[in-house]
Amino acid sequence: MMDSSASVGQRNFDSSKTFVKRLAERFLSAERSGRAAVHVGVGQYSRERRMEAELTSNLTLLTSKIEAAAFQNDGTDVTKAMAFAMEQLQKSGGGNRKRKLVLFSDGRSQGVTEAMLEKRVRLVSEAGVELYVITVGNQVNEANLRSLVSRGRSYDVTYAQRHLFRVPDYPSLLRGVFYQTVSRRVSQA
């Protein structure tokens, strides 16, 4: 789920799209053992939420849909973004599949309390979805970021460190091998 709120800005949103395309390519072109199948979907959120690409293993289709995603330039509602992502994952079925959600967030969200955030995170965790958060910059709400990577439980530093990715600015998303670091951690069991 890409953050498309006004605080991100058009140029940074475009950097996010490039990063997400690299991440999707890495997930979909990786060697898999056994009958493992990987599907990637991409959504964005601001005040409104929308799927830019349904879950697919078709990299060409996914890349073109990500490229076409339009910046919303509005407020931020991270709890509704997570609820939306969960609806999309549930619609796709799943059975015994591992389901993971990568969310761009600075932890700031209009009208969201820490209790509301913890409840939503707990629901995500109880649904068997592993949540990873990418945060950019230093204008963040640390308490909310901790809640996002808490599974809705007492703060577990080791778990949080594996599930929270920090970069100093949007251009840093595209430097070096950051996308490989993210894909490696998300891909681990």
Automatic annotation (TrEMBL):
InterPro entries: ECM_Assembly_Org, VWF_A, vWFA_dom_sf
Superkingdom of the organism of origin: Eukaryota
Domain VWFA as annotated: residue spans: 1-182
Leader peptide range in chain numbering: none
One Pfam family linked to the record: VWA
Name listed for the protein in its UniProt record: VWFA domain-containing protein
Organism: Coregonus suidteri
Lineage, highest ranks first: Eukaryota, Metazoa, Chordata, Craniata, Vertebrata
